[in-house]
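Deviations from the work plan: none for this task. Representative record:
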Amino acid sequence: MQEKDYILEVKNICKSFYGVEVLHNVDLGIRPGEVHALVGENGAGKSTLMKIISGVLDKDKGEILFEGKPVERMDVNRAQDLGISIIHQEFNLLPYRTIAQNIFLGREPVKNKILRTIDDDEMNRRSKELLGFLGMEIDPRTRVGNLGIAQQQMVEVTKAIAVDSKVMIMDEPTATLTKKEIDMLFETIRKLKSQGVSIIYISHRLEEIKEIADRVSVLRDGYLIETLNIEDAPQDLIIKLMVGREITNQYNREYFTPGEEILRVENLSSYRFNNINLSVRRNEIVGISGLVGAGRTEVVKSIFGYDKFEKGSVYLFGKKYNRLNTRLTTGLGVGLIPEDRKTEGVIVTKPIRENIVHASLRKLFKRGLLDKEVETRVAEEYREKLNIVTNSINKLVQFLSGGNQQKVVVGKWLCAECDLLLFDEPTRGIDVGAREEIYEIMNELAKEGKAILMISSDMPELLGLCDRIYVMKDGKITAEFQKEEATQEKILAHSI
Amino acid sequence: MKKKIWAHLLRNSSIILLIVIVIVASLNANDPVENFFTVMMSQAPFMLVYCLGMTLAIIRGGLDLSIGSVAAFSSYIGALLIIEGYIVPGIITAIAIGAAIGLFNGVLISKINVHPFIATCGTNWVVRGLVLFILAGKKIFGFPEGFKLISTGSIVRFSNTMKISNPFVISIVIFLIVLFVLRKTVLGRQIYSVGANPDATRITGVDTAIVTTIVYIMSGMLAAIAGILYAAVLDCAEPTIGYEYGLMSIAATLIGGTPLSGGKGGVANTVVGVLIIVFLNNALAVLGISHLWQQAVFGIIIIFAALINRIKERQLMLLEMY
């Protein structure tokens, strides 16, 4: 195929964040009027690539060609002018405005050029036309907030059509839709296709891709692995391409005979997850795998008492609880290393010293009076133990690298003498060197007899560290594997 | 070296501003020493007391707009007892009322999740309405001598005008207590952490609702104490005092260098902020600037101080990075 046949093409795109390269020489070509699926694990670089295409992020290297001509500086306005639009998983709609007002947001037709009064009739008329094209018989004066999710998505699509989009990026459009709504969306996609609109379709659901896509591209670890015609890409091949990396032995995990059971969860349910059963014992690292949005974080935060659960019970250290709060759980010796380090893990505007003792103030200072000497001594102790790289424990945490920040969070819980540690994405945003250190710390903790429950989207990490792995999908546990039987293919098959 | 001087200047910018203002006031006053003493002993103390409460609320990551009406209400109810000769019970009652209103604010904010601005603004009008309605604008005056001693008495006396007044001593003692709580106790540390990052603090197992409630109780009590001091100074309790307390104390806290975003700053900064405000008023008065202009100048100083704090924060951050 000749280059000029692509409506949009990217060549040799590279992008790094804080010195970590997340896209390596990515080449991708989109044909006019095709549905091009883009698949890859969490963190494979899909959203970064889409942000570069839609002008939200700037590329470090490489070229973007639109209709065969190179685009010098791609930014959001330029992308819009060219006709590239993106429909995010979370909608950019104003719920208290009407459909028409949302469609024409920022480009309202005006009646009077000087006063710039809005021509509502014209706006509603044109909105009705556009909606009609998609087969939506709905009054454009309806408030968006009163619409269902699928209809809101249609409004997003209509917005994109209204600006004459030639390339439409859909990021996980079906994540929140029911089967019937999905069919409606596919109908729309086919209609757009027949009009010559190209669609980049990001999804984890391989069955859907089979149904709607013409071609599929697989991203893995920032590399574009392969682009295939859909008929040449059976599901198991796609999965293989998605996970196909070597597992290097950076884990050095030693396994121990598990000790007493520290955590048991029975029939735990809330509006985000259903009937969760799991257990963790001393000397064990237990993983939870699953896609983003499967309810993993919600389960762990409920076990920790940060979020509420509706039904079921949690046994901590052999005692049954039907309600929990963080005061209780931390008192028992449970610690949470949250996914969102900067907003939940550390106080970035406070020094390392204060963060280390943050969870153990009552324990260290029984009479309620601070003792700076004790505080300094304890903080130094954990700085040494965890090898936190800094010139002083008085340095503000915001000036530390991600890996060192994570060590501070771990130190905080070790200082509080926790026996059960809940790690949510322990190595997200952490570079390779520091990752190995975190793995080593986790191994060391298991050796000391602590129990670890970890969530990770990084599958080699789970396979390399865990004694057992639970797999979650749509708020339910769909499988449990011992380390001997777990493979990436099996896990992925149960998560999508 | 140059960097160090720059850092020092920035760190102490509000003190420098204060010195400038004091000098301006002194140069123009007939008797600079007497002028200095009068301001320090009579105007600053009770303002400092209610500003301490506001600072606590701001460090916790909110604010307390109800302190003005709390001061009026609690001191008025206290005055009803004091005028009958029950001085100590009157004072205790007033402080208890302040604490109760603070508790109400605290529960609204921490348990029902009302934004501090809305919660305390609402409380402010409710309490003010109560004062005006129940008391129908009546003033209470002619307190017993024992009560008036709070304001007129002094421990060290140099001359009639130059003396260390009781309100000054009381405010310093209260200041030291609050300073101690914030700097040396676990509770103080928790107030800062809740202000800096409530989510991370809740994850460490701190009951952030209790910390918040304690802060508002303290703020209410401090407002009540300020009200009583004021009543003692004026020898009169009136329902209309304290209208400007809320905004004045926010201004003093911000000028001192405690940011509205919470988790930073401290009450020592607020002392500087309070002194800047009282001496600024004094300087404007001795300079003979029209009363009508004073508010505008005052506003300009607040904006100017905020600007300096902004620059300060950014520069200090850069300095700390390397």
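Chain A has two domains: 3-243, 261-495.
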